[in-house]
Amino acid sequence: MTDQETPPGSWGASAAPADDRVTHLWPSGRTSAVVSFDRRELQVILNLYGRKVADGEWRDYAIDFSAQKAVFSVYRRACETPLYRIEKDPKLARRQGAFSVVAATGLILKRGADLARVLSVLDRKLRLVDA
């Protein structure tokens, strides 16, 4: 079969280059990078998530990536709103820190540059207080 005999819709030798396919995905022509968690950051988040699932506190999660920020949402049940959102916003890295933990009400519980320290607000152990 030659290039002229390639059926329509197949990716033969006469197919459009890869750049044209990306242009179809982004009609506006923008090529902005997507903010995401790197492997180390995701490992820290998933370690906390695993401990909370083992304790029976959390049951589901969702990860969202956009051009502005990356969000890891934690749910008690999949049909509810997220209990907490762990956000990475690089625009805030120099001012308040790129990472923040946001409660379901929108209250920012902790913000900073070190992810492990920011997540410590969710991993606090209960302690017995003498009366």
Core attributes:
131 residues; alpha+beta; 5-stranded antiparallel beta sheet
Q: What is the topology?
A:
Layout: H1 18-25, H2 39-55, E1 60-65, E2 70-75, E3 84-88, E4 99-103, E5 108-112, H3 115-119
Antiparallel strand pairs: 1-2, 2-3, 3-4, 4-5
Commentary on this structure:
The chain is of the alpha+beta class and 131 residues long. A five-stranded antiparallel beta sheet has the order 1-2-3-4-5. The protein has a domain at 39-119. The chain is globular and about 50 Å long. A hairpin with a 4-residue loop joins strand 4 (99-103) and strand 5 (108-112). It has helices at residues 18-25, 39-55, 115-119; strands at residues 60-65, 70-75, 84-88, 99-103, 108-112.
Mean pLDDT: 78
Q: State the shape.
A: globular
Run of helices and strands: HHEEEEEH
Whole-number radius of gyration? 22 Å
Q: Termini, distance in Å?
A: 86 Å
Spatial order of strands in the largest sheet: 1-2-3-4-5
Amount of beta strand: 15-25%
**Largest sheet descriptor:** 5 strands, antiparallel
Which structural class do you get from the secondary structure elements?
alpha+beta
Helix share of residues? Answer: 10-25%
What is the total tally of β strands? 5
Residue runs with pLDDT of under 50 for 5 or more positions: 6-26
* Total of DSSP H or I helical runs spanning 4+ residues: 3
